[in-house]
Every structure is written in C-alpha cells, then in structure tokens.
Fold this sequence. Notes:
With 161 residues, the protein is mainly α. It is 70% helix and 0% strand.
Amino acid sequence: MAKKMMLLTRNLSHQLTQITLTTTLAITGMMMGIIPEFDHNFARLNWGYQVVAQTITNEEIDNYAKAVLNIEPLRQQAFNDIEKIMGTNSINNITCDQPQSLNSLNRDARSIAQDYCQSSQKIVENTGLTAKKFNEITQIAQSNQDLQRRIQNAMIQLRNK
C-alpha cells in the first residue's frame, strides 16, 4: 500500500511538473508575443485589470485553457520550423496581429507563421472565445497572479480528464 501511494505521489508530482512547465512555456510565449494576438485595438488600462479579471467567468477560463493547450504544440512547432529556416535571432518579434512583424521573414518562414496564426485563430474561436476576449485574458494574465493561478488550475483539470 505504501509503495502504491509513493508511486501515485510520484506520478502526480510528475504530472504537476509537466503542467507547470507547459503553463510556464505558454505564458512565456504569450509574453514574448509568439502566441496569437488578433486584436490590435485592445486598449491596455492598467487601473482596470483587477476589475476586468473579476468579470472573466470560469467558462471563459476553461475555454482559454483549452485554447492554450491546443495552441501550444502548434506554437512550438512553428517556432522550431521558423528557427530552422531563419536562425534564433530572427523570430523574437513575430505577432499574429501585426502583419508587418512577418516582413522580416523569408517566404517559407512567413508561410509557416501565417499558417500558425490562422490555425491559432480557429482554435480560439472553436473554444467559444472571440479573439478579442482571448487577447484580453492574455493581457490581464501577464500581470495578474490570481488569473494565472485560475488558468493553471483549469489546465491541470483539463490534463487530468
């Protein structure tokens, strides 16, 4: 029994480590602007973050977590493919909502980035979120630890299903 509990604890610890790593990578990607950001008209109001965060429903958090979990493998693949073509220094400032950020890419890398952006947008919309709401949640999560925790918990729940 004790051996079984130790294995269960080790497995749970391993799962939590994986989820934490995935979440960290996803949020790092968001902060680097490598995730889809489709609404360039989003207004950043620092004083409103706490209020807006409270209006994000649990359903929106769950949908956001689903989108991030589905987008992350695509983001990693696109990042790796572009990096192979362009090198590591050429992909820091690529964002989906700023087409001019793709101008520095060659044709093949630009095609990969555009495919990624289109796929990411479809994933977001298929979860029931608008691109605007996805970006709003992304922006708020960058500076709101409570929202980050809620997203991480939703991702853990989704991974355990």
